[in-house]
User: What shape does this take?
Amino acid sequence: SILGHLRWLHPVPDTEDTQRADRHCTPGSSNFTSVLVSTSKNSNFLTNTTVKPICIVTVTDASHAQAAVVCGRRNGVRLRVRSGGHDYEGLSYRSARAEVFAVVDLANLRAITVSTDEECGPTAWVDSGATVGQLYYTVAKTNPELGFPAGECPTLGVGGHFSGGGIGMMMRRYGLAVDHVVDAKLVNADGELLDRATMGEDLFWAIRGGGGENFGIVLSWKVGLVKVPPTVTMFRIPRTLEQGAVDIVTKWQDVGATLLPRDMNMMVILQGRQAVFQALYLGRCDEILPTIASRLPELNATKSDCKEMTWLESMAFIGFAGNTNTSALLDRNIGFHAFFKVKSDYVRHAIDKEVWHKIFSWLSMNGSGFLMLEPHGGFIGTIPTGATPYPHRSGVLYIIQYITSWPTGNEGSTARNWVRNLYNFMGQYVTKSPREAYINFRDLDIGENTVVSDVSTFDSGKVWGRKYFGGNFRRLATVKGMVDPTDYFRNEQSIPPLLQGY
Ligand code: FDA
Assistant: This one.
């Protein structure tokens, strides 16, 4: 996972869990800085010049969130909502522009209740401040044959992660996290507490992938749980350029999305002169090896590459770079604190071998830069584009993340230039019109809202919004126009309200 990779590159000590006993803290409070940085993952946004909140409200009950909205509106203070603090641009706890705002921090709202006796299958209610690692652990400890399809980094906050979709190692079998959300509790811009029945289907559609911070504060989510086998197989196979990495990656592009079974998810991490093929198969090694041997013989995968384990152990294996200590999934402070910049693309037509040689040349220029390629296809591609706001479904072969990091605050410009130049180079080989991007891999380079008469404009939002949401952007803006027409919940890339119908 990115977590494993970045931790390996910058092993900075973890921040202690902060004293969250104070429900409100202001810059004058002794623990303000420790609470502010507690779950902030990108050190870029913890500098002296960062625009910080005037107050952090750590809620433990729905009524606190409702009061924050009512009080914020009355006093002209906007809110930024933070669950796990992983936003790539730090928008859950800082503003890119001069702005007076408070943070509503949900880190202490993290109950998880699993029900295995429901008529329509097993479900769980999970609060937004829980991490996905806590969710995996709680579900599997209740019943080891149950799991949940979400992201690879165990400390991801459920609130922000589900708000943007949630891709992960089981998406080819089960789709995104939001494909399994069946109910939610939300505080809207009027401070009302709503569930699916009272919010209505348009708003319920929008919060399942339309991006965090747009429509209110989602306090908790009811999700359907999925079946996992008693034994799964993981492998991590590194191949250098000399061992044929370019040929294998070139072929993997179609094989990973269209020729491997849905139970198999094989992602690729490219760094330096090497490609690492990391896979989760929902079954035993002997069942999948013959398929890999016939579809991707160039990889030369053997039984000794396979590691069989429980599904829960595999979630730890992926998150902690091979360590299968499952209780670590409960540790919300295990994260890294690095300086990094990420951009994303989707690929619908396989990229030629010659271009992969060039991409490896780019990687040779930046030792800490890497690419993560995650296959789509399978179940995720069968869901209609408009079923949820996440539009990158049928026909997508894989998503690319371009990631670069650096060790100290003043060393970032070379790394940032590298990732931006590589992204420009890749423009000719990836999706176009729009050039697609993933909202959960937030990137302010692709556009920011313009605010006119205190409302974000639809035209400025369209520039980045079509990339994240394709044809679903207009519907999202219409829902925003219905539920928050004065644009109270907003940030630099929030859905602008559209007051005419879609
Ligand atoms: P954070 O608290 O920063 O919130 C992110 C956004 O959502 C902000 O705009 C925030 O205001 C809003 N928000 C948060 N909680 C909300 C709530 N309860 N109601 C309304 N709005 C809310 N993604 C992925 O799909 N698969 C993956 O495997 C990974 N892996 C990964 C690894 C690492 C190391 C990082 C840093 C990030 C990822 N991501 C990812 C991206 C991740 O899904 C994305 O950053 C999520 O928004 C993180 O949610 P958090 O709650 O942690 O962030």
In short: Confidence is low (pLDDT under 50) at residues 3-22. Residues 2-3, 41, 80-88, 91-92, 106, 128, 151-153, 156-157, 159-161, 163-168, 212-213, 217-218, 440 surround dihydroflavine-adenine dinucleotide (CB under 6 Å). Residues 245-259 form the longest helix (15 residues).
